[in-house]
Write a structure and sequence with these properties.
Blueprint (H helix, E strand, L loop, with lengths): L7 H8 L15 H9 L2 H17 L4 H16 L4 H27 L1 E3 L5 E3 L1 H29 L18 E2 L6 E2 H10 L56 H11 L3
Antiparallel strand pairs: 1-2, 3-4
Helix pairs in contact: 3-4, 5-6
């Protein structure tokens, strides 16, 4: 009787998982170089970190097979296909929601209500359980928010810089940085290249009243008076002689009155 030849699928199933890393030989590199590149690659590091956790649920998983799955998903993400990332985030959100509901149910078991209406609670146990429940709920919300931003990315607007300040400022839009105050001085003090004919003075124009304490000079400074003068009433010492008759008449009336 002729023995049946096993199919390809049967050979793959019976071969078992390859727990050791198998590398295809590259003649352009030494064995140590090729081993270092693969061992430090993100694909290999991710596989060696994820497989121990996955094996606790699924049993022994081949290292090369795990690296192949991660390599495939990484290549799809690099090409713009984010279906695997969306599925992962949704699965994590469902898992976190399950943890929240389970912890909430356990927290309720810490509360005991008696028939007479009184109740007792295991406070420390309830605090620990509810803390885990609220952390899972917060992480679930964050995961769903990340998933929403991945599905509908935010639009980023690049606004050109608008220089609206009143005081001196430094503007740098890809050119040489010149302060606004210096630019004003340069434009105001710069003389024309060719002076026109006539009595033209090439003196530079200065900004007037650039500082609050600076004022325009309307003439030469007057002579200073004596210092520390004794001040008296204006009407008695320094009043004007031409008073229009009003002040003199009042003084005459006061003199005419009897003491």
């Amino acid at each position: 009787m002729k023995k049946a030849t096993p199919t390809k699928a049967a050979v793959v199933a019976n071969s078992g998982p390859r727990t050791h890393l198998q590398i295809t030989r590259d003649e352009s590199k030494t064995e140590h170089q090729q081993l270092a590149e693969i061992s430090l690659s993100p694909i290999a590091l991710g596989a060696t970190a994820a497989l121990p956790w996955a094996q606790k649920m699924m049993g022994v998983i081949g290292l090369n097979e795990g690296m192949a799955v991660i390599q495939e998903r990484a290549a799809a993400a690099a090409a713009g296909d984010l279906d695997a990332a969306k599925a992962m985030l949704m699965a994590q959100a469902v898992t976190l929601d399950t943890v929240f509901n389970q912890m909430t149910r356990l927290a309720a078991s810490c509360l005991h209500i008696k028939e007479d209406g009184t109740w007792t609670v295991k406070k420390e146990a309830m605090d620990d359980i509810t803390r885990i429940a609220f952390k899972a709920q917060s992480q679930c919300r964050t995961t769903l928010q990340t998933l929403g931003e991945l599905v509908n990315p935010r639009s980023v607007a690049f606004i050109k810089q608008a220089n609206m300040a009143n005081g001196p400022q430094q503007v740098n839009n890809g050119q040489s940085a010149v302060s606004a105050c210096d630019s004003q001085n340069l434009t105001s003090t710069r003389a024309p290249a060719h002076a026109p004919a006539g009595n033209y003075s090439a003196s530079s124009n200065k900004l007037l009243e650039a500082n609050p304490s600076e004022r325009m000079d309307f003439g030469a400074q007057g002579a200073s008076s004596a210092a520390n003068q004794i001040l008296e009433a204006v009407g008695t010492v320094n009043r004007s002689k031409n008073t229009g008759g009003k002040v003199s008449r009042l003084s005459e009336r006061r003199k005419a009155r009897p003491a």
